[in-house]
Design a protein that fits this description.
It contains 5 helices and no strands. It is mainly α. It has one domain: YheA-like fold, CATH 1.20.1500.
Length: 134
């Protein structure tokens, strides 16, 4: 089927983009970041400990509050790690590119001209709540 072949070619072209290259570089940097790895491990252990405590019939509310606070602190450290911030930025850019590609394909399937259909962004200006638009 010709359209599948073209999709594979599109995939190859996407892998040549700066967005794709930046995302892979950011993933590699995260994989090599021992501090980030340790924080993620600590986060996962705290989450397991919290889930275990929540599963008990006799919950220790003070322990739950402490664990919740600790999890939030570790999560904040993870998200403020320079490599994680770079990854999140690269991921947002890649997601934006893929959203554009997907929108063009969807509009084309719905009868619009692929050469002229406009991909509109509903940007409200706040990147903190954005899933990526460009």
């Amino acid at each position: 089927m010709e359209v599948i072949k073209m999709a594979r070619e599109l995939g190859k072209e996407i892998q040549k983009t700066e967005e794709y290259k930046n995302l892979n570089a950011a993933k590699a940097a995260n994989d090599l970041d021992k501090e980030l790895e340790d924080l993620i491990g600590k986060f996962n252990l705290k989450r397991i400990e919290l889930n275990t405590e929540m599963g008990k019939q006799q919950k220790d509310e003070d322990k739950l509050k402490r664990l919740d606070k600790e999890i939030n602190e570790v999560y904040s450290q993870i998200m403020s790690n320079k490599n994680m911030m770079a990854y999140n930025s690269a991921k947002q850019e890649m997601d934006g590119l893929m959203n554009q590609v997907s929108a063009i394909l969807s509009m084309s399937v719905n009868g619009q001209d692929p050469d002229t259909c406009e991909v509109q962004s509903a940007c409200g200006g706040s990147c903190s709540s954005c899933a990526g638009c460009h």
